[in-house]
Amino acid sequence: MSRIGRLPITVPSGVDVSLDGSTITVSGPRGTLTRTLTPRISVVREDGRIVVSRPSEDKTSKSLHGLTRTLVANMVEGVTNGYRKPLEITGVGYRAALSGKKLLLNLGYSHPIEIDPPGGISFEVESPTKVAVVGIDKELVGQVAAEVRATRKPEPYKGKGVRYAGEVIRRKAGKAGKVGGKK
């Protein structure tokens, strides 16, 4: 039995979960999320908890069991607390700003980069070098954060670029200078 899949998901008060065939809709104080799950896995609501179970022990059902449980748990967590992915900008003259809902990034290119957030996502700029992607859908928050990071990935020599908060960049040594004169 899947160690993750067999854990029941507790539904906090104020969160409404409705199951319609293989479609699950989770509504909470922060919004509503809907997802179509695989029909191979059964999702049942029992006295304030959601239980995910699989019908057979074949390899595909086993792999989908834990995945389905995690997707549903992330939906419940998202509508309850939401998700936040912080990013850091490092480099001389590199900065971020908000223009309405759009994120403006100056990352050393000849032009500023403008990123328009998709529905359900917002940007927070705490300082010119700290940005956060905020939303209720964990998958979408991670995807948008990856797209912002991809605008200028951190380079290994000076570490300049956009990185996730707490991300460690493996640094390389630069060119070795002339040591010991001519040869």
Task: Give an overview in words.
This protein has 183 residues and is an alpha+beta fold. It folds into two domains: 9-80, Ribosomal protein L6 (Outer Surface Protein A, domain 3, Alpha-Beta Complex), CATH 3.90.930.12; 83-164, Outer Surface Protein A, domain 3 (Alpha-Beta Complex), CATH 3.90.930. The chain has two helices and 13 strands, in the order ββββββαββββββαβ. A four-stranded antiparallel β-sheet has the order 11-12-7-13. Strands 1-6-5 form a three-stranded antiparallel β-sheet, covered by helices on one side. Strands 2-3-4 form a three-stranded antiparallel β-sheet, with helices on one face. The relative contact order is 0.14. The model has no long low-confidence stretch (mean pLDDT 91).
What is the tally of helical segments? 2
Q: What is the annotated CATH architecture of the largest domain?
A: Alpha-Beta Complex
Poorly predicted runs:
none
Distance between the termini: 68 Å
Q: What keywords describe this structure?
A:
single chain; 183 residues; alpha+beta; Outer Surface Protein A, domain 3; 2 domains; four-stranded antiparallel β-sheet; three-stranded antiparallel β-sheet; 2 helices; 13 strands; 19% helix; 37% strand
Q: Strands, helices and their partners?
A:
Blueprint: E1 9-10, E2 16-20, E3 23-28, E4 31-36, E5 42-46, E6 49-53, H1 59-80, E7 83-90, E8 95-99, E9 102-106, E10 113-115, E11 121-127, E12 130-135, H2 138-150, E13 161-164
Antiparallel strand pairs: 1-6, 2-3, 3-4, 5-6, 7-12, 7-13, 8-9, 9-10, 11-12
